[in-house]
Amino acid sequence: MNLKKMFEMQKALDERIIKEKGLESQDLLPNTYVALDTELAEFANEGRWFKHWSKNQKPRTKIEHFCPICDGTGDENYQVNLDSLLEGRGAEPYSKCQDCNGSGKIGESNPLLTEFVDCLHFFLSIAIKNGWEDAMNLPEEGFVEMKKKGFEGGLTGVFLEMKWMLLNSYMSKDQSTKKTRFSLAWALFLSIGTIGFGFTLEQIEAAYMDKNAVNHQRQQEGY
């Protein structure tokens, strides 16, 4: 995973937001921590592992997106025929929708991975704001060891420990402790994604690039 490139992209996005929203004089670090905490909750919601009250505890990793032109029917004349039916007129013959090639679908997404990289955006932002970029460079050996041992307390235990480390990286008084806690929180977060849910580093990086582009587009559209 090319963290150097991702830091550059995140810094460019953050600077754009600050400039366009007129936030140059504000301390945005507290907001960034709240944003990350919120995104972590959204990630957990898609992961679903903790929902002991539900029969469905499988993570949401696939959503199919239906073609808006044919409303998922694959028929380019769908809307025309719907209007004709309502007006009591005859229907047009089937015509393959050109936008989806008659499949009725325009792709699919992984909501769990999407939420994971939303969290990643804010991890990067916090590291940049604090000058902690090196804290996100982690030795591969640590992940190999964690994979062998497994998660103590399961996913829930690791998730709660990660949250504790993250909040301590903000609340602690000692600067060295803050950075160490942040590094541990990042390591646990990455472990949840790679070991807990099987994301590859390549998948994470590609998903980050895609979402970063979406975030720039949103700013352009006045988000």
Description:
Helix content is 62%, strand content 4%. The chain has 223 residues and is mainly alpha-helical. The protein folds into two domains: 3-62 and 110-220, all-alpha NTP pyrophosphatase fold, CATH 1.10.4010; 64-107, no CATH class. A two-stranded antiparallel sheet has the order 1-2. Helix 1 (3-21) crosses helix 4 (111-130) and helix 6 packs antiparallel against helix 7. The radius of gyration is 22 Å and the shape is globular. The two termini are 29 Å apart.
Global outline: globular
CATH topology of the largest domain: all-alpha NTP pyrophosphatase fold
User: Quick check: average pLDDT?
Assistant: 89
Q: Work out the strand percent.
A: under 5%
